[in-house]
User: Fold this.
Amino acid sequence: MSSRRRTLSLPSWLPVDAYILALVGTVVLAALLPARGTAADVAGGASTGAVALLFFLYGARLSTTEALDGLKHWRLHLTVLACTFLVFPLLGLASGGLVPYVLTPELQAGFLFLCLVPSTIQSSIAFTSMARGNVPAAMCAGSFSSLAGIFLTPLLAALLLGSTGGGFSADSLLKIVLQLLVPFLAGQFLRRWVGGFLTRHKKVLGLVDRGSILLVVYTAFSEGMVAGVWSQVTPARLGALLGAEAVLLAVMLTLTWYGSRRLGFDREDRIAIQFAGSKKSLAAGLPMASVLFGAHASLAVLPLMLFHQMQLMVCAVIAKRRSRDPEEARDGEDSASRAPATVT
Assistant:
């Protein structure tokens, strides 16, 4: 019986996740059976409600006490915010040098928008936990990044994207606040009454989280198929985009890991910084893109979609390897990272 189980299980190093397969399947479904007409209106309304529900659940799960305690770790949160809203945008601006030889202007705009999106919450927590890092810090860092992104992402888009996207306006900010911030705050307010229920049904609500994102992905890619925007992306351009995103992810993973070590953070904090500071949120990015880019949102979110899948696969491998680090290596890294702090 044990040998049978062994043959059915996937190798521990293989970055295959059912959610990634579901994302790919959703894109294929949107390509073959895109929502049109009334079905598109229904799907659009459902995806808006799904995102609001997603952020309500984020707010209801975040303990106010833990959030306030997390503020004490301000150096870590400032480091994650700097990576998300300073280093990433600078790298996104540098990608302008890839036009027109590597990226088209439209793909470069989407690449830059990807660099302006806030960090993730759920996957940052999951990977930090898997790697035995500072989970409360990752949870607070992801939540603070998402809240800051509600205001910073539209402002940065207006500043850096200009007329390429819809940019910042009072109307766009209001739509983003109503769809993301208001449900989050409602979840925080109702947490004392619904928190216990959410804790008891974590697995079911996890499916709701992922299902919400899949619905938003289907809606965005359906709009792209109906508008014919995917005919603008050749296989060569798609491969070039993947290559540019692989370099972007590698730079950020390296910078967050070794940079946080130079700043004197211990191993558990460095893990939280690496996973929270190197990733981008599909759940927050998709609704923001639909507001900021309007009819062109489907092509603008393609780089974010691809980066999201890439970061999940790569971070899954890194988290598994970090979880197998021997205890002696962890202690050695902690003492090495603390050494600069004691000298200064």
Summary: The two ends are 58 Å apart (CA to CA). Residues 1-11, 339-344 have pLDDT under 50 and may be disordered.
